[in-house]
Write a structure and sequence with these properties.
Number of strands: 0
Structural class: mainly alpha
Order of helices and strands: HHHHHHHHHHHHHHHHH
Length: 326
């Protein structure tokens, strides 16, 4: 095909959708990933996009939103509307009785465009495969489908991978009181736990247990009228920590330096041992630490003659909400 024809194809598509935000740069990037787009006529591309949007306009799909998804997943530019519509509708029909709405699955697919191209049978096998693995812990398709749209990768993640991620954490800490049912419940509230590797989560837990043993943080006092946690009845001294983590599942996925920042904050400020030392947001932890080290305005760059400890924490990536002066 002549260069002039290719240039015309690109310009033709961009002109059709310039009003919806498509730029030459966007489309060229997509075409470089899927070179077949260089040879597709603008009419064909426009028809493919319009066909999908028309099918799901009633569920709120717009051309602009679908274009953004197509730029991230260039195959959407040339997949037929019938194929895309069948993929989406097939999943929704399969799980409608379990509470999956077309609007929810479309929203998930726009966040993770690969879902537009996966066959319904594959998605169904992924969902049911996970549920079957954990049915003994009370997991149902309905419960899992309430979680999956929050992290769309769950629709296409292998059941073996997800089961391995859960089991790898529980096996490491079962002797200290962590159960599959408890960790599964945490993952349903904080879906990234389904996809994070056991090695990463295990390292985070070990770091948090070290903070507890070093009295950087303490557990909140239980209310006298509250019921004891199941993990609280376990004889291991770390068991109550897992009850606390299950109630605050985001702590499992805190990055390493965010966890270490809690020890630095407590040691430098002399803050008393408290659950707040772990639950406090990173931004607030950094702000308190900066003020203690003599810098009370994160919007103002830290001068070169500032506290050397503060400068070191910024350089090493522990404090991120401010920067060093040039």
């Amino acid at each position: 095909m002549k260069p002039a024809t290719i240039a015309g194809n690109i310009a033709g598509v961009v002109q059709r959708f310039a009003g919806q935000g498509l730029t030459v740069k966007d489309y060229l990037r997509a075409a470089c990933r899927k070179p077949a787009l260089f040879y597709q006529s603008p009419d064909t591309i426009a028809g493919n996009l319009a066909g999908v949007v028309q099918r799901f306009a009633g569920q709120g799909l717009t051309t602009k939103a679908y274009l953004r998804a197509a730029c991230r997943k260039p195959a959407l530019f040339y997949h037929s509307p019938d194929t895309i519509a069948a993929n989406v509708a097939g999943v929704v029909e399969r799980f409608a009785a379990d509470g999956l709405a077309a609007t929810d699955y479309l929203k998930a697919a726009l966040q993770y465009p690969t879902l537009f191209t996966i066959k319904p049978a594959t998605v169904a096998a992924n969902i049911t495969g996970v549920v079957q693995r954990f049915a003994g812990q009370g997991l149902t398709i309905e419960r899992y489908l309430r979680t999956a749209p929050k992290l769309p990768q769950l629709f296409c993640q292998s059941p073996d991978t997800i089961a391995g991620n859960i089991a790898g954490v529980v096996a490491r800490f079962a002797a200290e009181g962590l159960t599959t049912g408890d960790y599964l419940g945490a993952a349903l509230h904080h879906p990234s736990l389904f996809t994070m590797s056991p090695a990463t989560i295990n390292r985070h837990i070990e770091m948090i247990l070290e903070l507890f043993d070093a009295e950087v943080f303490a557990l909140p006092r239980p209310r006298h009228h509250s019921h004891p946690n199941r993990t609280g009845e376990h004889p291991h001294p770390h068991a109550p920590i897992f009850g606390f983590l299950i109630k605050n599942p985001r702590l499992f996925s805190m990055e390493d330096k965010n966890i270490l920042l809690r020890r630095i904050h407590q040691e430098l400020t002399g803050a008393p041992s408290s659950s707040r030392n772990l639950l406090r947001s990173r931004g607030k932890t950094e702000l308190e630490l900066m003020r203690h080290l003599g810098h009370d305005d994160p919007a103002r760059p830290v001068p070169k003659n500032a506290n050397p400890v503060l400068i070191g924490l910024i350089r090493d990536g522990y404090i991120k909400t401010t920067r060093l002066a040039d």
